[in-house]
Write a structure and sequence with these properties.
Elements (H helix, E strand, L loop, with lengths): L1 H17 L1 H22 L4 H19 L6 H23 L5 H37 L1 H31 L6 H36 L13
Helix pairs in contact: 2-5, 2-6, 4-6, 4-7, 5-6, 5-7, 6-7
InterPro entries: SpoIIM, SpoIIM-like
Protein name: Stage II sporulation protein M
Keywords: Membrane, Transmembrane, Transmembrane helix
């Protein structure tokens, strides 16, 4: 077990060292998505904001009444979504035209997080920030690094394909393919843990925060 952990740790460290510039680029792109998502909140018109506030109020009501999806069902959906994303990035990494799509996926991930946190803070001020800390942050502390790692690995492998197949027309890529696949598998396992946090831990923490944001008008559900 310790040897396996050491091997995974060394593999990831070596990968991150060799792809430092790519990590900086992808991380900056993700942060740009976060910033852009937060800016979009300020461009919403009154009707759009009211619609989102009503939905947020409905969600709080469901959460307070324990009427949200069962944790096991939420876990299955979260695992499915995460593994589909990793699988898509893995497939895109095996093609020479997958790089732009991988970058778009990372940008959209940042955009969604930025918009969610930005809207909560915009409407609930400090209460919204604390609520975001328990609803958005816990699972994404694992999910975002895992997605960035597998994205960089996919971009790196795609660039390797370009060099070896389109430019040099020689060289084996099988070892790099195995390494990329193992890395994607490892990040998939990490995302399963993130899905567990999202399904089991986050709802409990969010419920504890509801009294601090209960001044929102909650619809009757009619």
């Amino acid at each position: 077990m310790l040897k396996n952990k050491s091997w995974w740790s060394q593999t990831i460290q070596c990968h991150m060292q060799n792809q430092k510039s790519l990590y900086i680029f992808v991380s900056v792109l993700f942060m740009m998505g976060v910033i852009f998502g937060a800016i979009i909140v300020n461009t919403l018109d009154l009707n759009q904001k009211n619609g989102l506030i009503n939905y947020l109020g409905y969600f709080f009501r469901q959460l307070k009444e324990n009427s949200i999806a069962e944790p096991s069902i939420a876990f299955q959906h979260a695992v499915g979504d995460y593994l589909k994303t990793v699988g898509l990035i893995w497939i895109l990494g095996l093609s020479v035209i997958g790089i732009p799509v991988i970058l778009i996926l990372i940008f959209i991930k940042g955009l969604v997080i930025g918009f969610t946190v930005g809207f909560l803070v915009n409407q609930l001020s400090w209460d919204g920030l604390w609520f975001a800390c328990v609803s958005v942050a816990p699972q994404n502390l694992l999910a975002v690094p895992a997605l960035i790692i597998v994205s960089v690995a996919g971009i790196s492998f795609s660039l390797l394909l370009v060099r070896n197949r389109l430019i040099q027309h020689r060289g084996t890529i099988y070892p790099q393919f195995i390494s990329f696949s193992f890395l994607a598998t490892g990040m998939g396992l990490l995302l399963i843990i993130a899905a567990g946090i999202e399904a089991y831990a986050s709802p409990w923490m969010m419920k504890e925060m509801i009294p601090q944001v209960s001044w929102i008008t909650v619809p009757n559900g009619s």
